Amino acid sequence: MDEEVSGYTYHLFWDELPFCDIHFAITPDVLHQLYQGVLKHLITWCQQILSKEELDCRIRCLPPCYGVHHFKNGISTLSQISGVERKNMGHILLACLVGCDTMPKRALTAVRAILDFIYLSQYTIHDDDTLSYMDDALKIWHKYKDSFIQTGVHKDLNIPKFHSLQHYVEAIRFLGATDNYNTEMFERLHINFAKKGWRASNKQDEFPQMTWWLSRQENINSFDCELTWVLEQQALIKTAREQPTAAPAHLPSPKPHILLPKVPTCPNKSISSIQISHHTPGFLQHLKAYLEMLKPNSTRNDVLHASMQQLPFQQLDIYHSFKFSHELLEEGMKASPLNEGRFDTVVVLTADTAETVGLEGMLLYFV
């Protein structure tokens, strides 16, 4: 019967090539295998275990957070889900499953293992430690994956995209990090080089227009790069002329700084209203103590005495967001009053024992 199927291959082209391993011709694909395959199955199974309504309710209850998409209407009503949307679902999936009575602990552990594997596989640099993390996550998945069969959401797990997981570590050792052969990059180029050009045309005899539009975009980008380089060289020459000839031997390293928006979110807000809206009844006393501590040679008695003094001002500008910038790091944080419910979480390295996974050597701060 197989011989009658349309497209049947009688002679495989690699049969007479003894040094050809056809399995390496199909490289792992993070976008279509992990996100649009494995994660898609997991989300569908979780919807069956919890019900779509329950999972949507849990997703809607999640507070907004910096860098995490907030699905205010849930995910069950979405159609034609893109890779970016699937990634955003993966960010919040585990948080929505924790604490649910209908979700078995074994299934929850399996979901956590798969999510760990997905994020570990996207590291741009790998070593033996990170690859061993991937192997450990895959072992945990194989240990607890039968929980999805026991719950009745699927008859078996003989799914090709789940089978592909066991080839990721070998492919990374042989071909390098997965960003070298991820189709997500080429789909992004399809948007930049094809879809935008099509939208810029008049939809009639579009190919020459798209080619001309793309050529202009490349010329503009080249000019921007050249102009940026010229301005940087001029700035360096100006800085060298302004600096004294005898520079100090040891220059202090630049310290991290906080970047605030140009306009405050709530200007001239009274201190009493700040204490009420932000639920900080001791804010005034702490502010007085902090300002006294900034003074040189201030003592403990001075700080205690400052809490009983009057401030020369009664209003402050309130900023709900800021950016912490240090060399290549630039992240934004946001905190809003309780009635808006927006408080971001910041993970800070505090020790050299910090690993690439887990929270050892780190502290969590709630802005």
Which secondary-structure class do the elements indicate?
mainly alpha
Radius of gyration: 28 Å
The number of helical elements comes to: 13
Gross geometry: extended
Q: Main sheet, how many strands, which sense, barrel? A: 3 strands, antiparallel
Oligomer classification: single chain
Q: What is the percent of helical residues? A: 40-55%
Low-confidence stretches: none
Average pLDDT across residues?
83
SSE pattern = HHHHHHHHHHEEHHHEEEEE
How many beta-strand elements? 7
Strand content: 5-15%
The end-to-end span amounts to: 65 Å
Query: Strand order, biggest sheet?
Result: 1-4-5
Count of domains: 3
Describe the structure.
The chain is mostly helical and 367 residues long. The protein has three domains: 17-180, no CATH class; 255-265 and 319-367, no CATH class; 267-317, no CATH class. The protein is 48% helix and 9% strand. The protein contains 13 helices and seven strands. Strands 1-4-5 form a three-stranded antiparallel β-sheet, with no helix packed on it. The protein has a two-stranded antiparallel sheet with strand order 2-3. Strands 6-7 form a two-stranded antiparallel sheet. Strand 4 and strand 5 form a beta hairpin. Helix 1 crosses helix 2 (52-61) and helix 9 packs across helix 10. The mean pLDDT is 83.
